[in-house]
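Please, structure for the following, as tokens.
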Amino acid sequence: MMILWIVLGAIGGLIVLVLLLAAITRKNYSLERSIVVDKNLDDTYHFISSLETQDSWSKWANLDPNMKKQYIGTDRTVGFISKWESVHKNVGAGEQEIKKLVPNERMETEMRFLKPFQSVAHGYFTTTAVDADHTKVSWGFNARMPYPLNLMMVMMNMEKMLGKDFEEGLANMKKKIEA
């Protein structure tokens, strides 16, 4: 009987330790990558502010050519929604909505992921003229991992996990826009 209490105490202590660790672990994360394209500011902003066009260069859209897509509203306007559904484990299902547009400066979106797990992230693109024929494009997002799931942040390096995907997407975007 004493051994049972020791085992239960050890399990309980471990659970409390894990929950305390989750309480002090960060819950927010963000990521940003940038690239310079050989295109003027107007053309660049017009290109990146289209959710439909993103499907031609996004790493995730290219992972599943059989992905189901649905568009609601008018692209390049606040409220436009791009929905996707895929059986590919790295794509899942969700939707992205344009939340804010500042012409030739910024586009903000909200991404609502439904599968493989539910979460919300806030994405953005910024465009800055380098000169008359070159534009710097920055692509980023920020999100929050709820308690106690935020404990996964201890084991996951979001910069490392998603940074390469953002870089690949921006490189694809650069090829498309400069073509």
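The first strand starts at residue 28 and ends at 37. Residues 32 and 140 are 4 Å apart (CA to CA).
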